[in-house]
Specification:
The chain is of the alpha+beta class. 59% of the residues lie in helices and 9% in strands. It has three domains: 204 residues, Beta Polymerase, domain 2, CATH 3.30.460.10; 123 residues, no CATH class; 86 residues, no CATH class. About 3% of the residues have low confidence.
């Protein structure tokens, strides 16, 4: 081996654990997302074996003539690798969307089969079937941690059957231990490839059969995978694939609303209130600024659930602080989304939101700007263009009382009694407020 290759291997051996941990971090992140979004898959990872890497570099050096260690690092993109073997080939678009959302994609994904097949040494057999079918993504982790931004990871996505066949074909054809394969052996591998392609079609049919199985009105969804199929097939025009269906299923399970005929009303609500046509109030504006659009879609589905089952949603929130739900325990994000949707449902009129905004403006000024509460209330009145029918002291008392009640309400401390009290206080404030001619509710 040349000095450059020796130097590279010495450095890589020292960095092997780093690349192993990097690939494991990506594996854990993508596995969690696939599970949450209802995509069945087997996920694994590895750092490139030093022996295999050395053999690959020696082979490629005859073409590339590496002149530095850095040139090898630039050429070898799969030092850290993750394999995603999806159960259903039809989920490829979902996986691609998840990868593009969760990671920084470096360059265009590589799609197989390639238009021009690489010729194989001493191979006179002309394949009948297309060969390896997959997509390879070169990605970098987001954020500012140790593994972020600078270190590429290759993610290979294919069906479980295709991954299995490619392992056999790769080891036999490219790494033969007993010489090159015979014409008959290559023919058998090609034949198996044909069976795999047929198997992929069967897997797609199996996925469609699963959807049909859930079409009975009384069908009760048993897991978030079936629930995901139902929502995706019912709301395909809303691009709803990349949503945390695991949390949605848990929420519905806690509500006791997991039958298809019950959820048909949720689907109808979403269709009547399309995701891309949400009212642009203050809350939705904040959501749209988030990097992950799936959060906005998830919150919209939860909003639909709350609007269809408000009493059940309240019952779940009231139990959250008192009960341990075990496997159905909601994440903090799920609790927060449910709470915000319930709050919006009960305090959702234009007038109520207007009062809420006035009181929050007063709170902001009182805590950060003004020296006294009187100054805060007067500045709020000027800014919001309102006047009060009560004296300043009474208005301050009403506002403080409203804020105290509001601040007691949370996803972990929810009582319908508190929310009802807040609504009453909201109405009391509304009665003592008058708008100027330029003020609008």
């Amino acid at each position: 081996m040349g000095d450059v290759i020796v130097s590279f291997m010495e450095r890589y051996n020292k960095e092997f654990d780093f690349y192993s941990n990097l690939s494991k971090a990506v594996e854990d992140e993508i596995r969690a997302k696939l599970h949450s979004f209802g995509v069945r898959a087997i996920v694994s990872s590895r750092a490139k074996s030093p022996k295999r890497l050395r053999d690959k570099i020696i082979d490629r050096n005859s073409v590339h003539s590496y002149d530095s260690v850095e040139s090898i690092y630039s050429d070898i993109v799969d030092l850290a690798g993750v394999r995603v073997a999806i159960y259903f080939p039809g989920d490829m678009s979902k996986v691609e969307e998840i990868i593009s959302t969760e990671f920084v994609i470096d360059g265009e994904p590589k799609k197989f089969p390639e238009k021009k097949r690489r010729p194989r040494k001493n191979n006179t057999y002309e394949k009948v079937f297309s060969g390896y079918a997959a997509k390879h993504f070169r990605v970098k982790m987001r954020g500012g941690g140790r593994y972020a931004n600078n270190y590429p990871v290759e993610i290979q996505v294919a069906s479980v059957l295709m991954h299995a066949w490619s392992e056999v074909e790769h080891d036999l054809v490219y790494k033969p231990l007993q010489g090159n394969l015979s014409h008959e052996e290559l023919m058998i591998l090609d034949e198996i490839n044909g069976l795999v392609l047929s198997g992929n079609l069967a897997l797609e049919r199996l996925q469609l059969a699963g959807i049909k199985r859930t079409e009975s009105d009384n069908y009760e969804f048993k897991n978030h995978y079936d629930l995901a199929l139902f929502f995706i097939s019912s709301l395909h025009e809303e691009a709803i694939e990349n949503v945390n269906f695991n949390d949605i299923f848990k929420t519905l399970k806690l509500m006791g609303k997991t039958k298809r005929n019950e959820l048909a009303d949720v689907v109808s609500w979403v269709k009547k209130n399309p995701i891309n046509k949400e009212n642009t109030n203050a809350r939705s504006t904040v959501r749209k600024r988030r990097r992950d659009p799936s959060i906005q879609i998830y919150e919209h589905v939860i909003k639909a659930v709350v609007n269809v089952f408000p009493d059940a949603a309240v019952a779940v929130l009231e139990k959250i602080s008192e009960s341990d739900f075990g496997e159905l325990e909601l994440t903090e994000k799920a609790k927060d989304s449910l709470f915000k949707s319930v709050y919006s449902y009960y305090i959702g009129s234009v007038e109520q939101n207007y009062i809420d905004s006035i009181v929050l403006d007063y709170e902001f000024r009182n805590e950060l700007i003004s020296e006294t509460k009187e100054e805060s209330i007067l500045d709020t009145a000027s800014t919001m263009r309102v006047s009060f029918s009560k004296d300043i002291g009474e208005v301050i008392h009403l506002f403080d009382d409203y804020l105290e009640t509001k601040n007691h309400l949370s996803s972990d401390n929810f009582k319908m009694e508190l929310l009802t009290r807040l609504i009453d206080k909201n109405e009391a404030i509304l009665k003592c407020i008058s708008k100027s001619s330029s003020g609008n509710i």
